[in-house]
Amino acid sequence: MANETETIAVPKYGHRIDPRKSLGLALLCWLVFAGIAWAVARGQTATFDQAGMLLWRGADLLPWGPSGLGEGVRDLTALGGVLLRNLVAIMAVVALLFIGLRREALLLALTVVLAWVVNSGIKNLVGRPRPQIVPHLMEAGGNSFPSGHSFNSAVVYISIALAFAALSRRHSVRATIIGAALVVSLVIAWSRVWLGVHWPSDVLAGWLGGAGWAFLASAVLYRPAKAAVEAVSEPADSPPPPTVH
Questions:
Q1: What's the pTM value of the predicted model, to 2 decimals?
Q2: Neighbouring residues of 215: CB distance < 8 A, sequence distance ≥ 6
Q3: Dihedral through CA 109, CA 110, CA 116, CA 118, nearest 10?
Q4: Angstrom distance (rounded) from CA 43 to CA 69
């Protein structure tokens, strides 16, 4: 009996996510980010930060919960660490290249690299020290605002979601993929407060800044990525992509 085979059709060109929606979301995220940064610079988040840091801790200043919870949270936070998040980003770029979406692959690479530069610049500009009111449950160095884990993981996972969501015309599919990335990056951000290495305002601003950068890059860097790919491709190989609303 012959084995049955199935052919999965992969679109050669992705459908671009509506840049107007991306720009609107980016503007909203960065406006709130700017408000938090302004408040942090003037010391107006102290009450919020201390309350958020101590919310789920006992008299010993350690988080409540079973003994194995700490290991699980450290595993979660590792998803936003330099090694794992960049490994995930590289795998996503390779996957996009493998299925022929070179434009999306270049866009993702540009988004991730430039995000690291942006986050590092803001960290050095603000120069906020890390919290010391609770024990640090893992090693963490450098400045505290905004959280690099929160910022860069939001960029990586949301940008990957935007790239692969463009493979589908169905709004429900795209919303599910992007929503899952938002949730994953939010959990990573929360883990930094649980571990005591960031103030709540650090991770909130970091996540908003990273999400804002992912959406901004999706709208602004798309054309440069498209032009770069077309420059090394045959003209017939780069028709204009349809915009998904």
A1: 0.85
A2: 22, 23, 25, 26, 29, 158, 162
A3: -160
A4: 32
CA 51-25-119 angle, 5° bins = 60
Q: Are 103 and 240 in contact (CB under 8 A)?
A: no
Tokens, residue 65? 């919960």
Q: For 36-79, write each residue's pLDDT tens digit.
A: 999 999 989 999 999 989 888 888 888 887 878 878 888 899 99
3-state secondary structure (DSSP) of residue 243:
strand
CB 58 within 8 A of CB 126: no
Q: What is the 3-state secondary structure (H, E, C) of 3-68?
A: CCCCCCCCCCCCCEECHHHHHHHHHHHHHHHHHHHHHHHCCCCHHHHHHHHHCCECCCCCECCCCC
Confidence at residue 151, expressed as pLDDT on a 0 to 100 scale: 95
C-alpha angle 158/15/118, rounded to 5°?
A: 35
Q: What was the pLDDT predicted at 61?
A: 83
pLDDT at 236: 46
Residues in the chain predicted with pLDDT less than 70, given as ranges, are: 1-16, 234-245
Q: Tally Cβ neighbours within 10 Å of residue 116.
A: 16
pLDDT at 9: 55
Q: Which helix (H) or strand (E) holds 244?
A: strand 243-244
Q: For residues 64 and 74, what is the distance between their CA atoms, to the nearest angstrom?
A: 15
- What CA–CA distance (Å, rounded) separates 198 from 23? 28
162 neighbors 96 (Cβ within 8 angstroms): no
**In a 3-state reduction of DSSP, which class is residue 215?**
helix
| pLDDT value, residue 240 | 54
